[in-house]
Amino acid sequence: MAKNTKKENDIIHDLILAVVNHGYSDDLVSCAREAGASGGTIINARAKAHEWVVNFFGISTQEEKDIILLLVNRDKKVSIMKTLSETHGLNSKAKGIVFSLPVDGVMGMINNE
Question: What are the domain boundaries of the chain?
Fold first, then answer.
């Protein structure tokens, strides 16, 4: 088995993840595109915590969330994250959080950037 010799300096992509209230994902992706992202993937989710569970006529419901995945070049990450945090952060109606993870490899995708 080959030993992984990739170093942090070799990483050229990052995955930005944004979690926002349901209904704000299209606007968030538009803002991300304006900031330099090429697009994103939207995943519907439900929040699961005691604070977010609401009883409505005796039926327990959970607040819906959207998770947006953006694969970006590392040199664009900070500016995209700042834009998303300013427009869709916790102080907005979207109530979003934004974070990133390093991506040490990408396959099956044509890099148009």
Answer: 13-68+77-103
Architecture, CATH, for domain 13-68+77-103:
2-Layer Sandwich (3.30)
The amino acid that residue 67 corresponds to is I
Integer Cα distance of 15 and 6 in angstroms: 17
| CA separation for the pair 53, 48 (Å, rounded) | 7
Q: Which pair of tokens denotes residue 19?
A: 């979690």
Residue 113 confidence (pLDDT): 46
Widest pairwise Cα distance in the chain: 59
Write down the mean pLDDT value for the chain: 85
The predicted-structure confidence for 70-90, as pLDDT tens digits, reads as follows: 999 999 999 999 999 999 999
